[in-house]
Fold these 3 entries.
Entry 1:
Amino acid sequence: MLPACSAPATEALNRECFCESLDADALAREIDRELGELGGQRDRSGADPGQERRADWVRTRCPHVFAPQPVFVAPTQLARIREIVAAVEAVVALPGYRDAALRESPDLARQTGGGDHPGPQGVFLGFDFHLDDGVPQLIEINTNAGGAMLNAVLARAQRACCPAMAGLVPTAASVDAFERAIVAMFHDEWRLAGGNRPLRSVAIVDEDPQAQYLYPEFLLFQRLFERHGIRARIADPAALAVRDGRLWIPAQGEDGGADFPVDLVYNRLTDFYLDDPRNAAVRTAFETACAAVTPNPRNYALHADKRRLVWLSDPLRLGEFGVPPALCRLLAAHVPRTEPVGADNAERLWTERRHWFFKPATGYGARAAYRGDKLTRRVWEEIRAGRYIAQRFAAPAERVVAEGEAALKFDLRAYAYHGTVQWVAARVYQGQTTNFRTPGGGFAAVYSTTTGGTGA
């Protein structure tokens, strides 16, 4: 019998349930179905996935992106995650908070990207949580959180390992609803950017996109857009050009065809303030609002600059912004204390380093992030000289995937828009941070009795 879905019960399932919920054959069929009409796309080696089964190509490129087993999360934990996400969005909406954040940001972030309109709010905000002793702890917010479409594919390939699990497996209806919400979100961003006609074209933009680990997801997004009547291209930012008041992907000689006009840029770049000259066309499009850019520098400055966690974890500062006391208490309990590393606290933080995690203020993907108990003096001096924040260490939850083996770690990623959680996924890993290199790890389905397995 399935235990009651309290936090202790789900922890027991994460320790003792070794059944594989991922149907590998169903996953292969789903990938083939989704990508079956996308030929001529080349990966980093120059291979064309159209020359082989798409599922085999994805498995070869990304061998550890799909975890075979689910992660169990209590309904109360998911409900609290939704409350935290809504609370953060309520804080970000306050004029005092926005003004303070934008004062600390480059001038570009003070633009809305919508001209006289509100401007895009940022698709796929990713709120990443650890369940420290079962309590959700918000460790960071990302503005271009990857994995949403991969998790939709993963959800469609789940199976019940026993009758007790049947009610936890994501339903086709829930995944359909998630995909509709994704498309609706991009239409909303187009409207907020001042689009006064239907959204017709999207450019999915990242540096050397075919070389990106999650390139298969770009193809999945392209397919999703095209299924809903929106033309889509995947492009390197250097391939874009602004002319005649519009953003374009010029026709390539080898491809032929006409220039591709871009209504909206789905921005997967990690150059958050678009400083790199290679991103000049995207920057111009944002500055002039000749195309919608989402997420954009303003979205990043308000949500994802890690210095914002300093404020979100400080009830006194939140009170100065006019945050109601109840929300101050909620965030203080669920955002680990965070402070900038500076001359005034460096020695204390070094002494207490075992209790802290150190991250660059504008970093991404766990790059140059360090757990305090692993620090050397050499690395510490680099942290002191750089722009780092120190975050009180919040332990990730654990998932045992095989009897007698050491537990893996997992975090939870809540994909959200306008303060509403659209989907919750888990990332299972071994090591200091998520890495998609762990056998048995990767994105994992979230099972909870109240959600049909989606966590949304």
Entry 2:
Amino acid sequence: MSIVSDAPTPSKVELTNEEIFDAHIDGKLSVELTSPLENQRDLSIAYTPGVAQVSRAIAADETLAARYTWTDRLVVVVSDGTAVLGLGDIGPRASLPVMEGKSALFKKFAGLNSIPLVLDTKDPDEIVETLIRLRPSFGAVNLEDISAPRCFEIEKRVVEALDCPVMHDDQHGTAIVVLAALMGAVKVQNRNIADLRIVVSGAGAAGVACTNILLAAGATDVVVLDSKGIVSRERTELGPIKADLAERTNPAGRHGGLIEALDGADVFVGVSAGTVPEEIVATMADDAIVFALSNPDPEIHPEVASKHVAIVATGRSDFPNQINNVLAFPGVFKGALDAGARRITEGMKLAAAEAILSVVGDELAVDKIVPSPLDPRVAPAVAEAVAAAARAEGVTD
């Protein structure tokens, strides 16, 4: 028996090309002063000769840079423009408006300074080396819109090379919010994640990270689909990332494709930009959960899915239960920086998911399994939880 909400859906926001392009004229970011520059005295303090004293002090003790520059609280949003939104490989310059937007979200929701850094190279060696050389200029790295499977190698190597928080948001931001939403859904239904048969459609950046965090949260039966069907041990053409997934998922040894995977499944997580026919969704278990996250077109329209399942979420703002990365990344980075964390751990990500869900509180319902992305309570709650987890795990300075 499906549980279908009668609550009205949010209205769709209508946008015109003129207002979109007007809002992007000269970019979306600017630098603001934190010290006055009104007279000769101000100039002498902020710049020469006064600034030389600060530079001498930092030269003698490099740790003072954290106090007397913005470095320690600066996030760089780094992309090579190879996997931008639903646009694909459009290059670094075309990706810049997206990275500026990401930096704007850091400022708005977490109060963090952030700058976009787009790199005119697809070579993982060059990307890693560039960030190593630029390390004195920033305090954290948000990797963004880098294509799979290169994104896995690049993130791993950057994490190993730098002594600061690093996260590829397309992977882990998505995974954190998906987990928060699923925890909300099972709480509404009085179920347990460990008892669910979960299907993740997509074995790219988001799909791999979602699978990993679901397993870490206690899921015991996860099936992953790629363009060729169910990822299983019997497939001999799998690369290392998918081969590893095959070893840790699909415990029943299922074979086939979407039809076989969804038959009787409790949860569908779509992160593959594919489509799911209504008749296949209809074969899912009673009280099933569908997260159709492809944008702008979900794998199945929410109104169609709702005829057959109990809870539906999408990545869109004009339907209930929007699964949006902005619920996670501002607070995750703020919490990591607040705690002086050297890296972002799995425990910190799990803490972030739990904090997101905690904001919903008594408002939890089938049409509100996560808070609104605009809820001002989210980032502080996530930051506090992430900082506490970082200290508990001993990854702070």
Entry 3:
Amino acid sequence: MSGYANLFIGIAGMIGAGKSTLATRLGEHLKIDVYYEPVEDNEYLADFYRDTPRYAFATQIYLLNRRFQQHQEIIWRGRSAVQDRTIYEDSIFAKMLARKGIMEERDYRNYATLFHNMSNFMCKPNVIVYLDVSPERSMQRIQERSRGVESGISLEYLQGLHEGYEEFVRDVSRVIPVIRVDYDRFRTVEEMAEVISQEYLNHNFLREATRFDPTR
């Protein structure tokens, strides 16, 4: 797998699924660049969890902007890379917030239009690795890592996200190769990397097609 030129791997999954850990170890194992989700320096995140309706739109725009910057840097550098959470996943959060009436419909329309326009400048990952984690397991991991800003996350919120992720995986797999992985099945990240490599080489994907806009 490391012999592929300009290989772009996206790591997708729920909050606490283990994306950052896998991205780090895949980067080491495959000797490729790693791009992490902007969490530590996210100036909106604490406000978002404190007052979600007020900061939902601003937070989603901030994340979309940062993720697009990462996405373009991966393309411009022209080197193999793994990205901790794909740009497409931001739409899962935005769509869920709109469906629950937390984000105003006009704000979501604005977000969706912006995403659609930006998508014209995106290059799809070669493959997305989806870490399949239940809402209950996600909650357990959030509690274990004890990030202060995440203390207000509810199981109901995670259940809504999980539904969104299942919809996302079904739709994106028509366009981008997807490998669904149960993280708890593997003893080491190296073992997982080898499985991902073989799945990629053998084209064991859910489905393949040509284009994807998650806001549609």
